[in-house]
Amino acid sequence: MFDLADAGTLGFSEDRLGRISPFLEQSYIESGRLPNAQLVIARDGKPVHYTCLGSMGDDGTQLRDDALFRIASMTKPVTSVAFMQLVEQCKVALEEPVTKVFPEFANLHVYAGGGGSIPFAPGAPANPIRFVDLLTHMSGLTYGLQNRNNIDAVYREHNFDFARDHLDSDEFIAKLSKLPLEFAPGQGWNYSVSTDVLGIAVERISGMRLGKYFEKHIFGPLGMDDTRFGVAEGQADRLVDAYAYRPGQSPKMINAGATSKLNQPGTFDSGGGGLIGTIADYHRFATMLLNGGELDGARILSPKTLRLMRTNHLPDNADLTEMSSSLFSEANNAGTGFGLGFAMVIDPAKTLMPSSLGEFYWGGAYSTAFFVDPVERITMVFMTQVYPSSTYPIRRQLKTLIYSALTESYAA
């Protein structure tokens, strides 16, 4: 699957890296907590460790190296990169109001009560959402899965979180624009459908459906041949089964790969969570990010653009403990800032995990994860398929195991 480089030459202990596969197998696979696990660790883009454990699903078939996973919110960094490509071409600017592309959002209001059987109260008019507010999740939008208030409940009624089967992109925007914002844009942070809106902005600006844009401008140049919205024809046997966590029991299979609706075309390309892909493909994407926007001669973004993306954009360099109203996110809050599509470490001590200042990362709802450490030049991609991602401490454990195997630090 991966041609592994000599770990010692790249500053890792082979013995300590050797702890990782047994840990995953004993703590997660044999115990039934996860059906499968794939992990690739690399330094300077060169893989030094690869793990492939478990099965494709309930039929017990051994997990394939080229298995397809629902990467869910790991779609968000891809969408953010696509949008920033358009920024680089001056087709749009971060500070511009989204009404430049979405006239539907011209009359937004901030939530002031109501919902359910009671009409929403006429709240105060909201300042315009800017494109930067979408990238940073400071737009005032939300997710139904947050499940905290009446706005979230209406999102669930419309099934905004999973719009693929019942809405097209214009219908999504039309329905969304009629609902109040949770807070005025720029005044808070809430994990939300903001990146879905951003993906539709890419469609309207480029004139291309989002999946086609990704294929032409990101996946094709990077050689990410197995990543797309939905599953390619004839590839259903490569899609792993998806599972849901059950307290005290093994996860329950909720979506069989072979019969999934993902094997059929959808009406909506979710820039916030719709991609299917392989660990090898996402490793290439992460390596491009590590390299400042380039891989194997393909320039996706400029280094300065990527540097802007992985800089904390929360006001006054705040962390998410000060800004977030989310019950659920793919980020830890303490010591964590947020940029243009990524969370990043702004205070390593506060995270209580081994990390580097400026390390950036994200994850997906089925417990997938990746991080890029530009200081130590390390990347990690982890794939599995259990919903939700907050179930197990595996991301913290993997980081601990990876950094404890490091013998030569570039930051020392």
Overview of this protein structure:
The chain has two domains: 260 residues, DD-peptidase/beta-lactamase superfamily (Beta-lactamase), CATH 3.40.710.10; 113 residues, Methane Monooxygenase Hydroxylase, Chain G, domain 1 (Up-down Bundle). The radius of gyration is 21 Å and the shape is globular. α3 packs across α7. The protein is of the alpha+beta class. The protein is 28% helix and 15% strand. A hairpin with a 2-residue loop joins β5 and β6. It contains 13 helices and 15 strands. Strands 2-1-14-13-12-11-10 form a seven-stranded antiparallel sheet, with helices on both faces.
Topology:
Blueprint: H1 14-17, H2 20-29, E1 36-43, E2 46-54, E3 69-70, H3 75-88, H4 131-136, H5 150-158, H6 169-176, H7 194-206, H8 210-222, E4 228-229, E5 242-246, E6 249-255, E7 275-277, H9 279-290, E8 294-295, E9 298-299, H10 303-309, H11 320-323, E10 336-338, E11 343-345, H12 348-351, E12 360-363, E13 369-373, E14 378-383, E15 386-387, H13 394-404
Parallel strand pairs: 5-15
Antiparallel strand pairs: 1-2, 1-14, 3-7, 4-7, 5-6, 8-9, 10-11, 11-12, 12-13, 13-14
Helix pairs in contact: 3-7
Task: Give the key terms.
alpha+beta; Methane Monooxygenase Hydroxylase, Chain G, domain 1; seven-stranded antiparallel β-sheet; 15 strands
SSE run = HHEEEHHHHHHEEEEHEEHHEEHEEEEH
Rounded to the nearest angstrom, the distance between the terminal CA atoms is: 32 Å
Q: Walk across the major sheet and give the strand order.
A: 2-1-14-13-12-11-10
CATH architecture type of the largest domain: 3-Layer(aba) Sandwich
Low-confidence stretches: none
- Classified by CATH, the class of the largest domain is Alpha Beta
- Count of individual helical segments: 13
> Roughly what percent helix?
25-40%
Strand tally: 15
